[in-house]
Design goal:
about 300 residues, ten-stranded parallel beta sheet, mainly beta, 1 helix
Length: about 300
């Protein structure tokens, strides 16, 4: 590895296979491993805690504490608030790739969830799985400046009704590199449901599921300055005859696109209807395919004119 001439180290940090290498940090670093850990340990690399939830309780707000989760870790959440991220300014970083990523599994009751109840929290490289049918919002964001980066949500048993939900406090929520693998069977409404909030960004996603309402939905309370796009390519597929990818409240101000590629279920008059947002702006390319062996058609909403 090259030696940095930058004072104090590498200007942008160092990553290995996309995971940050920590050489310095403002707060404390706690380690978690359900395989070899115990909540009676000190939370060090050699003596890790057994659960993320316990580690959160050892953090101090806004100190910059980091929770490092070892490959193979499984966190089982069996109740509402069973994993409560309620300490501001912490980061939870999962190590490992593929099936070795730390997994948070929601099971036992449909209300089992991870609550984000404090501001400025980041989760990175975690796999979230639905272990019971009809989960009502296993990732529940109720605070500002939450970031979810390079994470995956996945139906395993049945279908989550809405996998990610946020309320009007989730200002500037930032979701980047999100993969959602929903079940092909009916049962889901959305992959994410947004209620209010300002400055929310959803980018660089890969979403597939059977969504009765839409892959991405804003409902009840209008959002402001919502951004949904891809730096290079974002993809969304619905396997439901509703054929809706994004649907927004009528007064939600949003930008949709560029670089979103979409697959609908039915070969029908559904291209325009796939994106719903009366107060949104749409930026090409927005390509939609509604049958096999066809090339994507550019979304055919109204085009701006120079008057």
């Amino acid at each position: 590895m090259p030696v940095s001439n930058y004072p104090g180290g590498f200007a942008d940090g160092v990553t290995i296979r996309g995971v940050p290498l920590l050489s310095a940090y403002p707060g404390k670093a706690f380690w978690v491993d359900s395989v070899n850990g115990s909540n009676g340990n000190r939370g060090t690399f050699d003596r890790p805690f057994a659960s993320i939830d316990f580690a959160v309780g050892q953090c101090r707000a806004n100190r910059g504490d980091i929770i490092m989760v070892k490959p193979g870790h499984v966190e089982t959440v069996t109740a509402a608030g069973g994993l409560d991220l309620d300490v501001a300014g912490i980061a939870i970083i999962g190590l490992g790739t593929g099936s070795l990523r730390p997994t948070v599994n929601f099971t036992t009751v449909v209300g089992a969830d991870m609550d984000v109840d404090a501001a400025n929290i980041t989760v990175y490289n975690l796999l979230f799985t639905g272990g019971i049918d009809a989960l009502t919002g296993p990732i529940d964001v109720n605070a500002a400046d939450f970031a979810m980066v390079n994470c995956e949500t996945r139906d395993v048993t049945g279908e989550a009704t809405d996998f990610i939900v946020s309320d009007a406090n989730a200002n500037r929520m930032y979701i980047d590199g999100w993969v959602h693998r929903g079940a092909a069977a009916a049962g889901a409404n959305t992959a994410i449901t947004i209620v209010g909030g300002d400055g929310i960004t959803i980018k660089n996603f890969w979403i597939d599921g059977n969504f009765a309402v839409g892959a991405i939905r804003n409902v009840t309370t209008a959002a402001t300055n919502l951004h949904i796009y891809g730096d290079a390519m974002s993809f969304a597929r619905t396997r439901n005859a509703a054929d809706v990818i994004v649907t927004l409240a009528a007064t939600t101000t949003a930008s949709i696109g560029p670089n979103i590629y979409m697959r609908l279920q039915d070969n029908a008059a559904n291209i325009t209807e796939a994106l719903v947002g009366a107060a949104a702006q749409f930026f090409a390319p927005l390509l939609i395919v509604n049958a096999d062996n066809e090339q994507g058609l550019g979304w055919n909403g109204a085009t701006s004119v120079d008057i």
